Amino acid sequence: MKKYELTEEGRDYLKKGLPEKQLLDILKKQPLKSMPFDDAKKSVDNFFIALQWALKNKWAKSFGKDLVLGTYPKEIPEQAALEKIDKGEEVDKELIEKLLQRKLIRKVVTSEADKLVGKEITNLTPQLLKSGLWKQVKFKKYDVDVPVSKVYPGKLHPYRQVIEEIREKLIGLGFVEAKGPLVELNFWNADALFMPSDHPARGIHDIYMVKEPREGAVKDESLWKRVEETHKKGWVTGSKGWGVWDAQLARRLILRSQTTAVSARTLANLKKENLPHKMFVIDHVFRPDVIDAKHFIEFDQCEGIVVGEELTFRHLLGYLKEFALTIGAEKVRFKPSYFPFTEFSTELFVYFNDLGWVEAGGSGIFRPEVTLPLGVEAPVLAWGLGLGRLAMLKLGINDIRYLFSDKIDWLREKEMVM
Questions:
Q1: Which pTM value belongs to this model?
Q2: 146: exposed, middle or buried (Cβ count in 10 Å: 0-12, 13-18, 19+)
Q3: Structural domains for the chain
Q4: If you average pLDDT over every residue of the chain, what do you get?
C-alpha cells in the first residue's frame, strides 16, 4: 500500500523533468555549455526554482550575465525519487522530506477502515461494512461472562413520565390542553369562581401574595361588573350573593393556588358556536404549607371541564370513570361532597389492586354564579385531580419530595413508568 503519492505538480515534473534537470539539459546542449540568463529564463519553467537548486548543488555556475554548466550529475536524486514513489517503491527518508517541502508529493490519506486490515478488532464499524474490508479483519471473540460497566441511558424524570402519560390519555379522549399564568389575579383564582371575599382560603396563610407589583387589572369591564353584582346581590343567577365584595382584594396579584383559574379564563373566552368544548390543564399551583413527606408548597393539579348543552351529572360520572380506567384504576366509586363553586359535587375514589381504595380528587357541575357572569349558559362539568398523589401511587413512593427529586442514584435506578 502506497504511503505517498505525487501531487499534480509532481506528476508534471515526472514527465518533463524537474526545473533544475530541464535547465541542465538545455545548458548541456549549448556549444559552449553556457547561455545568457535571459535566454535560460525563457526556456525553463519555474526558472528561479531551477536556478536555486542548480547553483546549490554546483551543477551550474554564474559568470556575469551568463549561466554556465558545472558538473552534470549522473542522477538527480529528487527526480529518481519521483519515479520510485510513482511506482510505489521505497524512498530514502531525507528525500521524502525534501519532496514534501517542495510540495511534489503528499501522504496517502487512508480511511480508518484501511488501518484495521489484518488486525484484531472488537467493533464492526460502518466504514468496514461499506468498504467490504470487514472480510479482511480479525474479530476478537467476546467473553459474555466478563463484567462490564453499567450504562445509564437518558430518560425522562419519572414524574414527567406520569404527566406525559396522563396528558396523552386526555388528548385521546378528545380534550384540548390549556395554559394560564402562574402569577394570577385573585379575581380569576377566586372571585370569578364565586369564592367570597372573606373566605378563609383568601388569607395570607392560605395563599401567596405578590409583594411587587401588588395589583393587576381585568380589561373586560363588563365581566368585572357582572362578577361584582353576583357577589353583592346575585345578579341574574337566582342567588342572593354574599352581600359584599372586596374589589381591591380581587385586583391583588397572587401565586395561583388552583388550576380552576384556567377553567374560569377559558369559559370567559368561550363562544357559543364552539360548543361542545372539552378542556384540561396540567400545571403548577402554590399553597403555603409545612414541607414534609406528604406536603409541599408547590404541586401539580390536573383540571378539566366539559361544556355542552343538556349535559348532566351522569355524564360527569361517566367521564371520570373513563379517565380513571385509562390511567390504570381497576374500579371507581363516588362519594357526595361539597365544593364552593360546584353543585352537585362528588369525590372520586379509585381502586388499585396493591393499594386498595384511594381518593383521587373532586368534581361537580359549576354553579350558575360561576358560569353566567362568565357568559356561559350551558352546563359545565368540572373536575380536579391531585396529580401528585396519583403519581406517588403509580411510582410506588411515599414522599412527595421525590416527585421533584434530583437525586441521581434514585433517578438512575427508578424503572420506566409504563
A1: 0.63
A2: exposed
A3: 4-107 (no CATH), 113-148 (no CATH), 158-413 (3.30.930.10)
A4: 86
